[in-house]
Amino acid sequence: MNIKRGILLILIAALGLNGSELLAQAGGSAVPFLTISPDARASGRGETGTGIADDINAVYWNPAGLGYFDYKPQQSEYDEPEYEPFSQVALAFSPWLPQFHADLYYSNGTYGRFIEKLNGTLAFNFVLMNLGEFTYTDIKGNPQGTFNSTEFALGLSYGMIIAEDLAAGATIRYIQSNLTATSTSQGDAGRGISMGLDLALLWKPTHLGPLEDRLSLGFNLQNIGPKMTYVHESDPLPTTLRLGGGFKIVEDEYNDLTLAVDFAKMLVYRDGTNADPVPVSFVTAWQNPGAEWAFGLEYWYNKLIALRGGYFWEPAAVGGREYWNFGAGVKYNIFNLDFSYINTIEESHPLANTMRFSMLIDLP
Is there a contact between 105 and 96 (Cβ–Cβ < 8 Å)? Predict the structure, then answer.
């Protein structure tokens, strides 16, 4: 399975780990593409969104956010406003590490709609990570052809209000990893299949005096599920605990300024080559040092133009990523276009100068 290990190293490099950590982290979890944030808006805020989750990309950051989407006002020729069910599409595409010339790319598509009979919002999500083209060889190193390595996930999310100021949500997803070509001797030795579950809460207090309608706090336990098995070896899913908060510093007729903070801890624990299964790893993983921290600001003028900035940091023990994020957005009619840029502290970092674009479309 040397080819599979090599591909996994490439993907982990794409996520930004330093070379010295690559081999150690490669066996940490399978399908690390599930940890890539899907939208340029949250990326521009420093990779924050767990405590905000106010658009359809909540399916990644916090599916409980879907519970706050119900009806939206529409323009009307009459005095009384008209309302239609919330309906939104999110699209994202990003060439990954173009400096490697490896044809890596990440794509994400999500559609969600408020369903009155379900008293909540339902969303469908598709994520694809293309890891490029590889040459397949026999045991003597002779070329036997080429193959494309891909990983993808299909998800179904649902969120609803469960109390006056509290929403709950969940996502269930099918995950498939195709890391090597199918061979007659090993069958689908490079294919792994698993299922993942996210469980989330989002609290927006309505009776906290000056904090009313300004504060939001989120919880999301991501990628709970069985290990991904590739015939001869298996690795756990990247089960992650996410906690986040959002606070509106300024909110008036023309200006909105929001502060966001996220904390993320991967709940995967390995003792040598063996990894603890869930839910045991929920406890044992706290023996691992460090976690991710992200901070960001988002400013909207007249709800039409946005400027964003943020900072992402994690200790060297879990990858050593550290960078500043910058972003901008514009809303035109039913379209929301967002852009983000990563400025790494380390100039030679694989994520240096990464640019991302994403789009939100409000459907009638």
Answer: yes
In 3-state terms the chain splits into helix, strand, coil percentages (rounded to 5) of 15, 50, 30
Q: For the chain, give every domain's residue range.
A: 2-362
H-type alpha helices, the chain:
2-14, 19-26, 40-44, 58-61, 281-284
Superfamily (CATH H level) for 2-362: monomeric porin ompg (2.40.160.40)
- 47 band by pLDDT with thresholds 50, 70 and 90: very high
The least confident of 196-205, 271-280, 320-329, 332-341 is 271-280
Q: What is the Rg, in whole angstroms, of the alpha carbon atoms belonging to the chain? A: 21
Residue 77 confidence (pLDDT): 54
Output the six-digit token pair for 81. Answer: 């406003």
Peptide bond preceding 279 in cis form (omega within 30 of 0)? yes
Residue predicted with more confidence, 200 or 349: 200
Helix (H) and strand (E) counts for the chain? 5, 20
Mean pLDDT of 105-110: 92
> How far is residue 129's CA from residue 25's CA, in Å, rounded to a whole number?
19
Q: What pLDDT score does 290 carry?
A: 86
H/E stretch holding 144 reads strand 143-163
User: Strand 292-301 relative to strand 305-313: parallel, antiparallel, unpaired?
Assistant: antiparallel
Q: What is the distance between the alpha carbons of residues 8 and 100, in angstroms, rounded to a whole number?
A: 15
